[in-house]
Design goal:
- The protein is α+β, with helices and mostly antiparallel strands.
- Helix 1 crosses helix 3.
- The protein is built from 3 helices and 6 strands, in the order αββββαββα.
Length: 114
């Protein structure tokens, strides 16, 4: 039996293709998935539970939660403003994936580099 990947490698490749040209882009294993960072700040990750873990402007959390397939990210049982889970079905098309990744990239790029 082959070991299970901790995240969706195909989704990670699709995200990588989108963010490859971003200045200051790097990759790091985080939260059991593969995160894509801009200036050392996490923008988006291929989640270990499928779909994306996405960092967004905290002021837009409620607005973005209204989209189908989007849920709050919970850490230790607490919802985190500015952090979302986006189901794999919600990013099945390249267009949808680009739109969600753009939210994370914009927010990470707006923060001072680490």
């Amino acid at each position: 039996m082959l070991p299970r990947m901790p995240y969706d490698a195909e989704l990670a490749d699709r995200v990588r293709e989108i963010v490859a040209c971003e200045a200051g882009m790097s990759e790091k294993r985080m939260f059991g998935g593969l995160a894509f960072l801009i200036g050392g700040r996490m923008a988006v990750a291929a989640s270990n539970t499928g779909g994306l873990l996405l960092r967004v402007d905290p002021q837009r959390t409620e607005e973005l939660l209204a989209a189908p397939g989007v849920a709050p990210f919970r850490m230790r049982g607490r919802e985190m403003d500015g952090w979302l889970r986006v189901d794999a079905e919600a990013v099945a098309t390249d267009e949808a994936l680009r739109e969600w990744v753009a939210h994370g990239v914009r927010y990470a790029a707006s923060l001072p580099p680490k």
